[in-house]
Amino acid sequence: MQIGKDIAVRFPGLFLVHHNVPGGSAPHHKHPEHHLIIPLQGEINVELEGKVLNCGPGRMAYLPPHTDHIFRSAPTKGERLICMIDEGCWNNAEMPPHLATLLPASQLCKELLFFLLLNPKTKNAVPLIDAFVCTLAEILEAPRVESPFLMEHAEAGVTRPELRKALMIAREGFATDLSVSELARLSGLSVRNMSRLFLSELGVTPKQLLTSLRIDKAKEFLLAEMTVTETAYAVGYQSLSQFIQAFRQITGQIPSEYQGKTQFGRKSE
To answer: Is the whole model's pTM more than 0.70, yes or no?
Structure first.
């Protein structure tokens, strides 16, 4: 698309802009909406209080509402998609709160947003927006290798009794089919309030905590030479494919690779 020309469209619950402005910048500002920035060419820097998100093609940056930030783009290339999601649209999709973070770029997100951008009068806007928000939710909820969770450290710093109870229940029940909604109910919290507490005090979502606990235990079972299928069900997964996907997101390997490498390492000692 033409350099220096913006294209913007608005739908119920979503505002979408295509920028192609190298060297663009914006001083301290904030938005009432959830904010997603997807670089297409060139890098961007998003400066937050005590944190800088350096983001290029292949990554995207998410900011929750009312996050004060400074925006800068590369001087030679500056093509990007900027998407703002209203709180009402976010809540309708039952999206939990999240911290500002870098995410892997999603081809599906880009394709959905480009279709909306180029077809502003489409009759399918609502289901397409729903698909986009659900896809973004899955990406935000996915555990990431660069953000390991240490249960002992988390429990030591928790002061809220409701959160301490939630951690105890998660530690004791993660190997069952314990869900986030069930964890909230047993802890005496709503899902939304529990998610806020987890993020503010632990820096992870309840789903990321449960996944981390399950994968840590799965490593022990794999080292004890349980099969991958036995391990998946032993740590609370009802689907083998979901277990393999979560294990790879946490460790960067599929379970059979992890098991094979660790067994080889023991044999070579």
So the answer is: no
